[in-house]
Design brief:
The two termini are 25 Å apart. Strand 23 and strand 24 form a beta hairpin. This protein has 533 residues and is α/β, with parallel strands linked by helices. The protein is built from 20 helices and 24 strands. The longest helix is centred in the middle third of the chain and has 17 residues. Among the domains are: 94 residues, Roll (Urease, subunit C, domain 1); 114 residues, Diaminopimelate Epimerase, Chain A, domain 1. The protein has an 8-stranded parallel beta sheet with strand order 8-15-16-17-18-19-20-21.
């Protein structure tokens, strides 16, 4: 089917817009003026009435299945105090008395405004129940807390250890219910495994939300536990059944090399990928934790907690062995690294596995938050792909300088600097850590203000990205991460017809209004997959 969209403001590339676009069988045939494009024959002509059209947006790192799982869990994101968390847990349990394990998602002590502003512990959760095991994940998912019943089920004692993680002890020398990094998965192991039906339900619910906010492609880490074969099979089934409404690329996490080798023997060889709609993707690793939980691995002590430098989820040797094996198999690696200690380790490791110092596999760093100027220069020199999350500033602005000090803060969250240095910078949300709404993310990239408009002058405003650069980070640069920049990420002839129609002109509105942009229509492969009311 041939379709023409006319009378629009169609973003082609920086400084270049056109009025009309011709689509044929899911491929862009031409863009140009109304007069030029309307000379072509077509089955349908749609009048955009001046609306702005962007390439479909591509979140370069999130967790689709987890977004859906959160939608079906006890949500704690609105809690403003420990008491709020307790009450939300009690209310959920009263409405769902038959749950085997009470699972909660999204609490953040940095958002507490009443009472103590600290990590939750088992004593807090015991006020909800001591009969039902409780597992409440912090928003970053690098810290999880369990109640006494959960610890009892696991058989945790003060002597229990987890490689690459930590089970914290309280003042009494006993486990206080706080688990971080690899220990998080140990605590989460008491949660009943989801069925394929559960996984599909979560996935489709999240996918429907994602396309409603303008995502036409996602690079998603949904392989994160020992049940990975079931997850692969479920997503393959969604793809085979024609239920994918966006383009999906895997980011599979294997922290243990034996699990990665098992993947290489199985799914890597037998998975059915077309590399257009459903892609094999990249190995995703975790080197450290989060800034909010003080588990990001630093080269120096935390400014506000002398003696604390974070947590190493993988040793340097473990990281190297995984990356070496991946490179030998021509597999791209992306590594979660937030602290400058973790980032330095990842830079050094990638440099060791590159062919003659050239990043041919486009290995990358997810987050890349706390950086020195020297590290930024090295990342740009090596052309390491960086997946940034400007939306993290929403939670982090109030804590950054306290955690790491003013000097290091000046060269951190350096979206604009690294982009201008020529590094392949893409944007993402790490949802459900933050909402996958790309326009809130672009707002933070462009303004470096929290959603409430603070600080008024912006946080280190020299790092503000232009609107065009932020959009390119969400489109052509995200496509570059996947080796797909030759067919998606632009509205140009020969590219796939993935695009979104906006309710206002993101290029000319007050930049503070970007967070309120809404999508009127989402089009994937020439097909309308979302239409607003």
């Amino acid at each position: 089917m041939d379709r023409i969209y006319k009378n629009g403001k169609i973003y082609v590339e920086k400084g270049y817009f056109e009025e009309a676009i011709l689509i044929s069988d899911g491929i862009i045939e031409a863009v140009g003026t109304n007069d030029d494009i309307l000379q072509s024959s077509c089955d349908e002509i749609i009048d955009l009435k001046g609306k702005t059209v962007l390439p479909g947006l591509n979140d370069s790192h999130l967790h689709i299945s987890m977004i859906g799982s959160n939608m079906n869990s006890c949500m704690l994101t609105d809690a403003k105090s420990i008491d709020d968390v307790i009450q939300i847990g009690k209310d959920y349990l009263s409405k769902n008395p038959d749950v085997d394990v009470l699972v909660g998602k999204g609490w953040n002590q940095d958002n507490f405004v009443n009472g103590e502003k600290r990590l939750l512990n088992k004593h807090d959760l015991d006020k909800i129940s001591t009969d039902v095991p409780i597992v409440f994940d912090r928003v970053c998912i690098h810290v999880t807390v369990g109640n006494s019943k959960a610890l009892e089920v696991l058989g945790v004692t003060k002597h229990t250890e987890v490689d690459g993680g930590k089970i914290q002890l309280g003042e009494d020398g006993e486990p206080n219910g706080i688990f971080n990094e690899n220990a998080v998965r140990y605590l989460q192991s008491i949660i009943p495994l989801k069925t394929k039906e559960d996984i599909e339900k979560d996935f489709i619910m999240a996918m429907d939300y994602a396309i409603s906010v303008g995502l036409t492609s996602v690079q998603s880490c949904d392989i994160m536990n020992k049940d990975y074969n079931k997850v692969f099979e479920t997503i393959q089934g969604i793809a085979d059944g024609g239920k994918l409404k966006f383009r999906y690329g895997h980011q599979y996490n294997f922290q243990e090399i034996d699990d990665f080798k098992d993947y290489l023997r199985t799914e890597h060889l037998t998975g059915r990928y077309d590399e257009k709609f459903y892609s094999k993707g990249a190995l995703k690793l975790f080197k450290d934790g989060s800034l909010g939980a003080r588990t990001a691995l630093m080269q120096q002590d935390y400014n506000d907690v002398p003696g604390e430098r974070g947590v190493e989820a993988l040793s340097d040797e473990q990281l190297y062995q995984l990356c070496r094996l991946a490179a030998d198999k021509d597999i791209r690696v992306i590594t979660h690294a937030i602290g400058n200690g973790a980032i330095q380790s990842v830079i050094d490791t990638y440099e060791k596995i590159m062919d003659d110092g050239v990043n041919t596999l486009r290995h990358g760093i997810v987050h890349n938050q706390i950086t020195t100027r020297k590290q930024l220069e090295k990342i740009a020199e090596l052309k390491l792909a960086v997946m940034y999350q400007p939306i993290f500033l929403q939670s982090d602005i109030p804590i950054i300088n306290d955690r790491i000090g003013d000097e290091l803060a000046e060269t951190s969250y350096a979206f604009n600097t690294l982009y201008k240095m020529g590094a392949p910078v893409s944007l993402s949300t790490d949802s459900p850590v933050e909402d996958c709404n790309p326009f809130e993310n672009i707002y933070l990239a462009v303004n470096r203000k929290r959603l409430d408009g603070t600080p008024e002058e912006g946080y280190y405003p020299e790092e503000n990205m232009s609107v065009e650069d932020a959009i390119d980070g969400y489109t052509i640069m995200s496509a570059y991460n996947e080796f797909k920049e030759d067919f998606k990420g632009r509205l140009k002839p020969g590219y796939v017809a993935d695009m979104i129609i906006l309710d206002r002109d993101i290029f000319t509105i007050d930049k503070n209004d970007i967070k309120n942009v809404k999508v009127e229509q989402t089009i994937v492969d020439g097909n309308i997959v979302f239409q607003s009311n």
